[in-house]
Amino acid sequence: MSDHKMEGMGTRGVTRPMMDMEKHETMHGHEHIDSGAMKMSADDRMKMLKDHHNQTLWVYWVIVLLGFWMIASPLTFDYGKNVVEPAGGRDVWLSLSDRIAAMYWSDIISGLLLVIFGWRSLKPNRPYSVWITCFIGIWISMAPFIFWAPTAVAYYNGTMVGVLIIALSILIPGMPNMISFMKMGGNVPTGWSYNPSSWPQRSIMIGLAFIGWLASRYLGAFQLGYIDTVWDPFFGKGTLNVLNSDMSHSFPISDAALGTLAYTLEFLMGFMGGTSRWRTMPWMVTFFGILVIPLGFVSIFLVVSQPLTVGAWCALCLFSAIIMLPMIPLQIDEVIAMWQHMVQRKQKGDSLWKVFWKGGDALSTENDQRSPEMATFVDSPWRVFKSSIWGMTAPWQLTVSVIIGFWLMLSPSVFRMGIETSAANLNHLGGALVIVFAVVAMAEVLRSFRYFNVLLGLALAVMPWMIKDSDMALTISSSLAGLFVLALSFSKGKIKETYGLWDKYVV
């Protein structure tokens, strides 16, 4: 096995050892044997770790070179020339001279640390050096908006080099030293009909997060002062009003640029780990889920509350919310599979702390034979796309609820109601929440979320009659929409997949 794996690593040079182990198990037909027979000795694992490190040695040399790049950046680009002020006359926590000095020394010190820890990482079995390098990359991504970088080149340099460092340290070579403790076994959770960590399942998350990254980076560039205006095809100056609002100015940093960091971590974490990461990397699936699910809800709520708090809509902010919303039902199944594995290992007497950080022994030897290879996307894009949304279905009841939600959001404009009236606020917020609950309920594991729309529909049916600044047509429209949403939210719709222990919660 070891010789075979080394050949595979030598031909690719960037493969993750954990993925190699999974691939080896599948290629040699071990889907249905006892995983204990596949255990490797500590010496075998160390040999594999060292051989893999030698094949990916170029990664750490590139990190060292990027360290010198960061040291030279403030000297090459002169952060004190062609400086800009943040948009909208925003007061920031640093003076211009302090902003220049902070970025100057941040890049130089970060570069020196990259050289030191990149050099240390040239030897195998130094996971702490690799992790420190990764966190330096995260800091390089953060520094431009923490210090309100005074020049666009400092912002561009930080966002790009930061992404490269994170990718080079833990994505291309794989998680540091994971080969020394990874448990081999099946990659389909017990009782599940598909693998929620397959590459098609993760590819759609990576794509959506990257699109969100581009949009947030553009909005952040405006708030930081690098561009004078932002494009808005629907709401005129609405985007400018939102980005320069008192709510936005209440943050000590650019909220759009902070969103860029969140999307950066999301699309990079989509690449982390192999197709068994729901059981081999519970900690990573947890953090990825936190970024996508609770923080996603917060981000969406902030966007849909813009008419209430600012009195304006932001087209690209809405676009970002539309990107974020389907990521929640698309990601939750992997979190559920990870939770199921943790519960099952706890029942076996394992330490939850150890399983959380290092994974646990596989309870199933079943490998994924259903998901298509990503390499087939060019020839069969529809087949790969369909496999990327397994676990998420759109029954007609939920689809119609989404359409009604859009109507509620549009109806104040159709009936010529002012955006800051109580009637408009009710329809904007109520319609947005109807859409959010319906789309989240499209995840079969969260189908019960549709019951939130029962309560919401009831509120929309009653509350318009209590508002004084609404006209009769809008009141009737809102009330009927609420009744329809209420009626549509009782039926579960068809469930296509199975989810092991979670099946009893799919109601």
Automatic annotation (TrEMBL):
Domain Vitamin K epoxide reductase: 204-331
Membrane topology, record value: Multi-pass membrane protein
One Pfam family hit: SPW
A GO CC term attached to the entry: membrane
SPW repeat-containing integral membrane domain location: 99-169, 396-489
GO MF term list: oxidoreductase activity; quinone binding
Key words, A-Z: Disulfide bond, Membrane, Oxidoreductase, Quinone, Redox-active center, Transmembrane, Transmembrane helix
Keyword Iron among record annotations: no
Organism superkingdom: Bacteria
CDD domains: VKOR_2
Entry-linked InterPro entries: SPW, VKOR, VKOR_sf
Compartment(s) where it occurs, according to its Swiss-Prot or TrEMBL record: Membrane
This protein's name: Vitamin K epoxide reductase family protein
Organism field: Gelidibacter salicanalis
